[in-house]
Amino acid sequence: MKIEGEAQLVKIFIDESDQWHGKPLYTAIVHRCREMGLAGATVTRGIEGYGAHSRIHTARILRISEDLPIKIEIVDIPERINQLLPVLDEMVLEGLITIEDVHVVKYTHDAKRRT
Predict the structure, then answer these.
(1) What is the number of structural domains in the chain?
(2) Which domain holds residue 37?
């Protein structure tokens, strides 16, 4: 797959403890994106943050937390992002989802290098 030009970036902000059918929500979202053929998804674990409930989640040593902030980023063409949005609406029961227009300079892979 090759993408260049106008695309969209979806950012999903959830908690590490959020679940979907018995597994971490972030894992379920990444696997669903792959099943749908989206270009890619990346999960980032935050070290501190808060959301709608104003409860601070932190990784500081004195407050070890297993419920840290999670950000999932997905970039693809608008048509595929539009197909993903109803799926995310069903899966993300609590959190924040944003969409930004982005310009992809290069996204490709070398099929010959795959093993």
Answers:
(1) 1
(2) 3-113
89, β-bridge pairs: none
Query: What separation in angstroms does the CA of 46 have from each of 50, 58, 68, 78, 79?
Result: 10, 8, 6, 27, 29
Task: Please report, for the domain that includes residue 102, its CATH number.
Answer: 3.30.70.120
pLDDT band (50, 70, 90) for residue 114: low
Q: What pTM value is reported for the model? A: 0.83
Q: 57 forms bridges with which residues in the sheet? A: 49
Helix pair 78-91, 25-35: axis angle to 10 deg = 150
Which residues are bridge partners to 13 per DSSP? 71, 96
- 95 touches 18 (CB < 8 A): yes
Query: What one-letter code names the amino acid at 78?
Result: P
Instruction: Tell me the per-residue pLDDT of 50-97, one tens digit each, with 9 for 90 and over.
Output: 777 777 776 665 555 567 899 999 999 999 999 999 999 999 999 999
Residues 12 and 93: their CA atoms lie apart, in Å, by 12
